[in-house]
Design brief:
The complex is a heterodimer of chains A (about 160) and B (about 425). With about 160 residues, chain A is an alpha+beta fold. Chain A is built from 7 helices and 4 strands; from the N terminus they run H-H-H-H-E-H-H-E-E-E-H. In chain A, strands 2-1-3-4 form a 4-stranded mixed beta sheet, covered by helices on one side. Chain B has helices spanning about 25-30, 35-40, 45-55, 70-75, 100-105, 105-120, 135-150, 180-190, 215-230, 230-235, 270-275, 310-315, 335-345, 355-370, 375-390, 395-410, 415, 430-435, and strands spanning about 85-90, 125-130, 165-170, 210-215, 245-250, 260-265, 265, 285-290, 300, 305, 325-330. Chain B has about 425 residues and is α/β, with parallel strands linked by helices. Chain B starts with about 25 loop residues before the first helix and ends with a helix. Classes of the chains: A alpha+beta (about 160), B alpha/beta (about 425). The interface between A and B is large, with 51 and 63 residues.
Chain lengths: ~160, ~425
């Protein structure tokens, strides 16, 4: 299995930064970076990461269920994460999440039929003072209103 | 980038460069005193560096508030094993959003803090463990690290001091538990983030079974300031045993939520008034969670208090990670508690049974009470269950879930009672009207 040249460079470096014999440390970063490129964690990816880090595939498998950002199923091209934790809740995060469900016509961790969007109700993502917050893929959006969310989704739909 | 207007009343120590154009660049850093504290520290005896940090009364900014200098002194400098430095940038305590700003706006200050830590404990490799959701900060820290190497502030024989130091980023992938230091260590070793039995403490056997100096982003970022101006000057900013300033993350029902740097010991009500611009819509204050969702809640009449570790501890709460959540009179405290417990139930790693089972049952019971399905004895059962979790788990997550529960039930019992026996939530209408 091969990845883009940029990711290959990143992986090459990743395997050198940990102490000798401790390449297992690269498993989680490698899975996340690779998932971002290929869309989800496939069987093939598990085996590839295991091979590169010198561990058993089982040792890769066992971390996947633990880390909430790792997915075995592909999410949408734009993964919309709405925080409803305490700081966001107090200023409308829950209503924002309900609005997103209606707007996209999907529930938690579901994908729209065209594969463009997926939705997730997430735990605190570190934007409490600028709540309610939404993260789309890795882009933070602060002080999000339902109207602002509509606009964000509309803009992404145009870009596709 | 800053996401809220700064306040002229702030005491800018860690954020002193935030307002400068291109504040994250190495040029801005070097032109404004950057890396000079490292050069100063390189001339000092390692014990003197640790002593200076002790004198500063700096305490861990991640949540526990442990004296930083003391923690540094636990690392066996003369051990033949390599010593590692790990920066905990897994900021995920609900209410907390300050480490993000420190990495985004002044990444070199953090790198310099790690270097000084390296001098103190004879460590030569540092890893910054950044939560997965903060990918843009992985890129920003990587850029800052690359620039530091290019300009000779990282690598071999830094600026002719004879000191070698390497610095790397490591991404998490979504797990609150990995902010607990021993779970973080398992995570950085490529495993599930499960807490370890202590002792041995990380200072003795941490990452890869080696002595490890592990601190929060804000803690390391304070260090160059301490070395530059002296520990005593930093200590003088705060109150006795609570040195310096902190970045307080103000959220909830205030007019101007934001992250503001204030000296420790700053009065809470004055902070809400002068920094937060008062309560939103002129509503009355009901409660404050002082330092992230793990902290016991303070009722409005307890909020006339100085914000430092010891004063808040005396009042039965904590300054925690500085995530201050303000709730007004229209807040349903049962609903707030349900949401907090949903979080802990989701994030419990499942290793210790009191935490795994306790958070799940508390989530279910609290939800049932909020939904009107509760009966009178549920309230005592919730309290009892939470009290039985306290101190019975490997790490602090069990306590973090239990402590707010006990305080919510104790201080807002009447609100729990108002939900019993099929009664609808008394706040449902007002809470729906709240949209920014």
């Amino acid at each position: 299995m091969t990845f883009s040249p940029a990711l290959e460079t990143r992986f090459e470096k990743l395997l050198t930064i940990y102490p000798p014999g401790r390449q297992r440390s690269a498993v989680v970063p490698m899975l996340l970076y690779a998932q971002d490129e290929i869309g989800s964690i496939t069987r093939e990816l598990v085996e590839e990461v295991a091979k590169r880090c010198g561990v058993e595939p089982l040792q890769v498998d066992e971390v996947i269920g633990y880390y909430s950002m790792l997915h075995r199923k592909p999410m949408g091209k734009y993964h919309v994460q709405v925080c409803t934790n305490i700081s966001c809740l107090l200023v409308g995060g829950e209503q924002l999440y309900e609005h997103a469900k209606k707007k996209l016509g999907i529930g938690n961790k579901e994908v729209t039929p065209d594969g463009l969007f997926s939705l997730e109700e997430v735990e605190c993502m570190g934007a409490c003072s600028w709540a309610p917050a939404v993260e789309i893929n890795y882009d933070f959006h602060h002080f999000v209103t339902p109207e602002k969310l509509d606009q964000l989704l509309e803009d992404l739909r145009k870009v596709r | 980038m800053l996401f809220n207007e700064p306040n002229p009343l702030e005491t800018r120590i860690l954020t002193r460069r935030f307002h400068l154009p291109d504040s994250a660049s190495i040029d801005t850093y070097l032109a404004n005193g950057g890396y000079q504290a490292f050069l100063k520290a390189a001339q000092m005896a390692p014990e003197k560096i640790v002593e200076e940090v002790k004198v500063s009364n700096l305490r861990g900014r991640g949540g526990a508030g442990f004296p930083t200098g003391l923690k540094w002194s636990f690392v066996p400098r003369t051990s033949p094993k390599p010593k590692y430095l790990i920066c905990n940038a897994d900021e995920s305590e609900p209410g907390t959003c300050k480490d993000r700003l420190l990495m985004e706006n002044d990444p070199h200050q953090l790198i310099e803090g790690l270097m000084i830590g390296g001098l103190a404990v004879d460590g030569h490799k540092a890893y910054i463990y950044i939560r997965g959701e903060y990918r843009y900060l992985v890129e920003k820290m990587d850029k800052a690290i690359a620039d530091a190497y290019a300009r000779g502030w990282l690598g071999k024989n830094i600026q002719g001091t004879g000191f070698d130091f390497d610095c790397y980023t490591h991404t998490g992938a979504g797990a609150y538990e990995c902010g607990e230091e021993t779970a973080l260590l398992d995570s950085i070793e490529g495993k599930r983030g499960i807490p370890r039995m202590k002792p041995p403490f990380p200072a003795v056997a941490g990452a890869w079974a080696s002595p490890t100096l592990l601190n929060n982003v804000e803690t390391f970022s304070a260090v160059p300031n301490i070395i530059r101006d002296g520990g005593a000057a930093f200590a003088a900013l705060g109150t006795p045993k609570n040195g310096g300033t902190r970045l307080l993350c103000l959220s909830g029902h205030v007019n101007k939520p934001g992250v503001y740097e204030i000296p420790l010991g700053y009065p809470m009500l004055e902070f809400i008034e002068k920094f937060g611009g008062g309560m939103r819509g002129g509503k009355r204050l009901k409660a404050v969670i002082p330092g992230g969702s793990s902290c016991p809640v303070l009722a409005a009449d307890e909020c006339d208090i100085a914000m430092d570790y010891d004063t808040l501890a005396k009042a039965g709460s904590m300054l925690g990670s500085g995530g201050m959540v303000v709730m007004d009179e229209d807040t349903c405290m049962v609903k707030a508690m349900v949401r907090i417990m949903r979080f802990y139930a989701h994030e419990s790693c499942g290793w210790c049974i009191p935490c795994r089972e306790g958070t799940t049952w508390l989530r279910k019971s609290l939800q049932r009470v909020h939904d009107g399905g509760g009966v009178a004895r549920d309230i005592d059962m919730i309290d009892d269950l939470a009290k039985n979790m306290l101190g019975r788990t490997f790490c602090a997550l069990g306590d973090a879930a239990a402590m707010p529960t006990i305080s919510f039930v104790k201080k807002f019992r009447s609100e729990f009672e108002a939900h019993l026996d099929g009664k609808p939530c008394p706040y449902e209408h007002s809470s729906e009207a709240v949209l920014v």
